[in-house]
User: Which sequence fits this backbone?
């Protein structure tokens, strides 16, 4: 996922959701938007934009003003695709969770580019991994990840009916003062200080047939979402291109920016300049991709740390261990030990 600059505007389709959540928490959000200079236009909601910095400010104020409830939990629980009905139709007519998971790419494109959700599968376990803002560093406050998972659980449980036997939620941050509310609210075991934000569940759930499957409507909804995406202004970032190249060709990870630039038909100087223009750097993207691949490969017990280190382009295992510990707060061995058998 591309690094998003702090002031680069992002879509604000979720405006009605914030209004609804604030009302449920006992306050009026209109003065909050006004004080922060956020213009509201329900008639042209598809054109509404806010900066990430404004979104963080709104969230902070809402958390302080909420009475009796934790605002991020309510925000996530009340989320609905009110102004993107094609996506909701696609979801509820899916034949399986694996099929429904395509929505996560659309959420990033149409709802919030700061939200990156991806499926990881190892053995009998699946993980829906969340990152906020494309950064390998935990966000300073847990509010946005607290808001995303209630929405995921709401839709997942609705799709699975009474058979949503998810295992636990993992969070990167330390237990907050209100940690006791997590288990009560989510109805799941919760683990803090984990390497990733993730919903962990049995892999077989991904392919369990869903009772709401409706293939004809599903295809129609997919077409309509595709049309909506085609109307979006296209802006392929060089950051995304670099990330995709490194994931698809891991052998480039240890060969330096010169070899990567050659693979992309760019000069190293041009590549560095274009990454800077997007608010990032080669080192940042390299670290993000290495963390992502390392986290996946460490869940494969047959892969030794030496093999993973070599695949990631490190000179030796110790260099890999130091880097992974810096990124995640855990050594590779500790990360592997925390994973379910």
Assistant:
């Amino acid at each position: 996922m591309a690094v998003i600059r702090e002031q680069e505007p992002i879509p604000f389709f979720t405006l009605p959701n914030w209004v609804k959540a604030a009302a449920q928490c006992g306050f009026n959000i209109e003065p909050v938007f006004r004080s922060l200079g956020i213009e509201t236009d329900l008639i042209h909601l598809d054109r509404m934009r806010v900066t990430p910095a404004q979104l963080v400010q709104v969230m902070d104020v809402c958390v302080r003003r909420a009475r009796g409830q934790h605002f991020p939990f309510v925000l996530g629980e009340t989320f609905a695709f009110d102004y993107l009905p094609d996506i909701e139709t696609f979801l509820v007519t899916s034949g399986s969770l694996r099929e429904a998971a395509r929505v996560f790419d659309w959420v990033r494109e149409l709802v919030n580019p700061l939200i990156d959700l991806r499926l990881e599968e190892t053995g009998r376990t699946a993980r829906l991994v969340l990152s906020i803002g494309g950064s390998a560093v935990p966000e300073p406050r847990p509010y946005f990840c607290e808001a995303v998972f209630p929405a995921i659980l709401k839709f997942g449980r609705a799709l699975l009916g009474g058979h949503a036997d998810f295992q636990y939620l993992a969070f990167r941050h330390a237990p907050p003062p209100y940690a006791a509310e997590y288990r009560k609210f989510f109805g799941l075991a919760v683990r803090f200080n984990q390497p990733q934000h993730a919903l962990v569940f049995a892999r077989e759930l991904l392919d369990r047939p869903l009772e709401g499957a409706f293939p004809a409507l599903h295809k129609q909804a997919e077409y309509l979402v595709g049309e909506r995406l085609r109307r979006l202004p296209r802006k392929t970032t060089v950051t995304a291109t670099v990330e995709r190249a490194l994931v698809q060709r891991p052998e480039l990870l240890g060969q330096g920016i010169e070899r990567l630039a050659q693979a992309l038909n760019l000069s190293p100087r041009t590549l560095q300049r274009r990454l800077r223009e997007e608010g990032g750097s080669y080192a940042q993207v390299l670290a993000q991709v290495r963390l992502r691949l390392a986290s996946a490969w460490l869940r494969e017990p047959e892969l030794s740390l030496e093999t993973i280190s070599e695949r990631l382009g490190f000179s030796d295992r110790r260099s890999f261990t130091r880097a992974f510990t810096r990124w995640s707060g855990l050594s590779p061995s500790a990360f592997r030990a925390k994973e379910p058998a």
Observations:
- The longest strand covers residues 115-122.
